Amino acid sequence: MDEYVSLLIVTALAFITPLLFSKTRVPVVVGEILVGLGVGLLSFIVFEITGVRVIESGVTVEVLAGIGFIFLMFLSGLEIDFGKLERGGMRTLVTALVMLAITLGLTYGLISLVDSLIGFDIDPFYMALILSTTSVAVVLSIVREMHISRTVPGQQIMVAALVADIVTMIIIAAYTINIQVTQSQNFFFGLEAVLIVVLIVVFFYLTFKLGSLAMWKYPEVLQKFFKLDDPHELGVRGSLAIIFVFVALSTVIQSEALAVLGAFLAGAVISLLFQEGAMLGKKLFGVGYGFLVPIFFINIGISFDFEAIFSPTVLLIPILFVIAAISKVLPAALFLRSGSIKQDVATGVLLTGGLTLMIAAAQIGVSLDIISNTERGMIILLAVIFSAIMPVLFKYLYRKEEA
Amino acid sequence: MRTVIVGGGRIGKFLAKELDDYIIIERERVRAENLSRSIGDHHVIIGDGAEPEVLERAGTRQADALLAITNNDRTNLKVALAAKNMGVPKVIARCNDPSFIEVMHLEGVDNVICPTQIASRMIHSTLFHDVEEVASIHVTKGSMLDGTRLGEIRSLASTRVLGVIRKRDILKPDPDLAVKAGDEVLLCSVGGISPELKQLMAQETNGLLPFSEMLVVLLDNAQIETVGDESLYLSAHLGKIPVDVHCPAEEMPPRLKDLAQIWGVPVDHSVITSFQANDLAYLQYRKMTKGTVVALAPGEVVERGLFRKCELGKLLGLETARVLICRRRIPYTKILAVFDGSEESMDLTELALKIAIHTGSSLHVLDISEMEGAVPDLEHLKRLGKSRNVEVKELYVEGNPTLDLVALVTGGGYDLLAIRWSCQNVRRDILRKVVKDSQLSVLLVR
Fold this sequence. Notes:
The complex is a heterodimer.
Chain A: H1 3-21, H2 28-50, H3 59-78, H4 82-118, H5 124-132, H6 136-145, H7 152-184, H8 187-217, H9 219-226, H10 234-251, H11 256-273, H12 278-302, H13 316-335, H14 341-351, H15 356-367, H16 373-402
Chain B: E1 3-6, H1 10-18, E2 22-26, H2 29-39, E3 44-46, H3 52-57, E4 65-68, H4 73-85, E5 90-94, H5 101-107, E6 111-113, H6 115-127, E7 133-138, H7 150-157, E8 160-166, E9 169-171, E10 184-189, H8 195-206, E11 213-217, H9 224-237, E12 243-247, H10 254-263, E13 267-271, H11 274-278, H12 280-285, E14 292-296, H13 311-315, E15 322-325, E16 334-339, H14 343-359, E17 362-367, H15 376-387, E18 392-396, H16 401-411, E19 416-420, H17 428-437, E20 441-445
Parallel strand pairs in B: 1-2, 1-4, 2-3, 4-5, 5-6, 11-12, 11-14, 12-13, 14-15, 16-17, 16-19, 17-18, 19-20
Antiparallel strand pairs in B: 7-10, 8-9, 8-10, 15-20
């Protein structure tokens, strides 16, 4: 299939999806995966009958989806509101960290138990990491929609989501780099990896410090970056340059996890520097969610391995669903103590399952052979199920409690 | 007669009581749900009335009349035009801004109702022949009139009350109506302003005092010129409120004494050790009320801890605390207040306006809230400023609130910045830097 035709199909689907899902409560990104899955399924059926592959994502789509993925992680970093973390105070932060630690421990224990009983060949720690993620974008939008962002439970939910997002992302990067270093059995590769990580941290720190200094010394110059009518779109260009400095540093050791973390850190440093930089944020969200990110999500659906549905791995979905739910709800019920157990349970439900990070971790896992392609498919389906069900369930539980 | 009402505010709700067959379209879910509870589900649709499909859903095509009465003139225009296109026989639009009436007429809306214009016509017709003077009193928080019934005001001022402007609504002069802070009471008198009314207006001006006492806390006597001068200057302009100086010196510095004498400010002095000054319990012991402002020198801001919790932060943890970091930028000519959408920042902006009124400076309000459109409460402050010859100018964020604040603080030529210590939408560390390192005086509240 011609490159531009496959690009046309993907962009047309990206255009139609929000229109299709506007009347439903399904988040648009989930809709994009579902539409991709629908098209992929159609292609799979036609292939099974005729032996001809009607839809294939070509090189161009793959490259754009790859950049979309990087951009998505960047936007996830951009969505981290450090002001909220600080305003929440130490207590909220420590509670969130303890909850995450218990979630990780519980998930790891339960997966190991299931693994020993049924005998799934999965890395329990990596799977625990995947299930411990939270979808910050979904959580933030629900909290805002329910007008509880300034309430104590609302703050706690947001801080817990942000902490889960940042910490799991860092552990995933550290864990996968460790695997890479162990696999390579090369001392110099290990040294190189450490050096790159140090470089990324230093670059993060320097960008923040120099940026802060520039904000204080030359606010008028930086203001141009945020103006709506800037013909050169300096803010967008600068942000893109920062993303690719982080990503390029990461690719030196060929670590996809570090590239993802790099893009995430690029978003985080911009958010840290220019909290509430509404106009720049809108422009970057426009570039990301308007073009690159939908291509990534639709491509996930299109390139889904449908044969996986017919494998026993499909059993993973209900099992992992239950494990993830228990591991999030239990710590929330134990530690949040908002005064209402039902409200705490609702919070646990909302925090269950991350969309972007789950998919990102699955992608990285496949590239390092930690998980199989089939398992990746299951994780994607699980992420879709989480994002579609949990917010609705949360609203039901939370509202019922309020009433 | 089937009527579609777009906008479920107070007027919409009031109208609903007068009608039988009607439906109200309201965009805000919470307000719509409240309406549903009071008038019934079948009378309310949640949605944006400016969207044709929402109008369709409300059965506008079959309606005999449509009233576009939201707070937003542009929305009302859009709704009215859409309704006309749908063939509604009678379309009425509300227009809040009198200068927009002509635009509505030009666009083809025949029936435009402007509450402001109606009020002014009412006043004119009431004034016709026998009334010579019209006065207005802005009611400020905690003032004598705050909470007073109109009947009492009428007897206090021996005058007639024409009405009360509350936010954007004109309220009827019901004797039992209690006025509250932010209201503007319109009064008129025959044969000139009565002495009673004059006295009432003077009392209200006293009600405009931002503080009732100043507490000057100094760690070392070298800062007396910075903190002392500014405190006395403020006291002199704020009705000579008492200044209580606490410093390590055994006797009050002569300079302070002289200045107090020149300006006629009552000053009291007590000796404290640096240790005591640092001890926040001491300030709490002083039982600060909302009328107290604590004047400090910039060097007295101490930082420490993981989140850089500082002594100032602790002090501002008190709900009543108002802290002035003095940099001797007197006389005040330009004041900048930062409004972040919270109630506290609204109070602070009002406080800054009161200082501007008494010091004769202008006030710029940087609106960093994420609210859309004009904030009604800021409108009332603008009116209050205008009535006291203070220019109140609203500044909007063009891109990034923190950057815009830094640009104004470093290059805006302001003398005083009024900001919340826990201001939303501004980077916390930059806010601390503004407080610590900028060249202007800073008035802080929690």
